[in-house]
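@channel sequence for tomorrow's demo:
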Amino acid sequence: MSHSGHIQETCMKFIFRDANFPDVDVTNQLINRTIFIEYLYPGWRGHWIAPANNYRAAVWPVIEERIFDPAEGLRLFLRDCGGGYVCIRTRWLEEKYSNYFLHSGNHYFKYSTFPSDNEKLKWKVYCSSPDSTEKCILCDKFYSAKYGSPSCVYIRYDGYIETENVNDEPHDWFLLRLVVPQALVNGYEDIHEAAQSVCNSGNVSAVFEVQDCVGTTSTESASWHISQTITTEISTGFQLALLRGGSVVGQKFEWGKAFSNSKVYNKETCTKLVVTVPPNKKVGITHLYGTYGPYTVKTSDYHIKEVDC
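structure tokens (generated this afternoon):
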């Protein structure tokens, strides 16, 4: 240990008893992402890491369709804390109380404005594959370095988080599943699926009003309000997709410009648009849109298309 009290950086390759145990370091690819962590031990599926009312780290039973709901408190933001480590910030009530990070010493989410200065707030994520987060472990920096063996998260019988040397306990104690939402750009809506379309069944052209809707909506099952914290999460997801190439349709510049507009991440708003519809034609507004978890983001970039009624 250095005189400053910080553990010296070490370049160690952890050895696990089980050769199939997650050992691929995926920490860097999770930086700036909001994730959800499910405990995989038998009997605990459907339980997700979240802070208790006093910010003690625990797991809570939530059906997967509801994990995005901010009121459930499951959203965890992984902040870059340097040296290949992340600090894990809860997004629960973040619009009022922010900067609470998972602490490996007392297993609470601890308030800090400079988490990168505290070794006990730093974590690594290992998974079985660089392309899958279905089986992972979460290990701290401070105690792993102090004892030269990975000190990782498991859940106690009472539902609270604990950390322990993985080689001292059964490996299935430590297995986690990470849900990592990805922003996807889907192109322009199909006119047959576009919500705003009109059909002229007459014999002459006619003028119609349609709704031009721009912004973010959620699936019917996602009944919660699209608040500023949700807006921030979704916009960050699309920024990461743009920076890293994402799922592209057409030219990257086209959708990059459309999704750089912060207004598209706010709750959807609609305005009236007048269109002339030829006889026996259906006209629809098809927006360049993307998805993130249960959310659909429509940009102001649209085409007016027509097909037979």
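heads up for whoever presents: Confidence is low (pLDDT under 50) at residues 1-12, 246-251.
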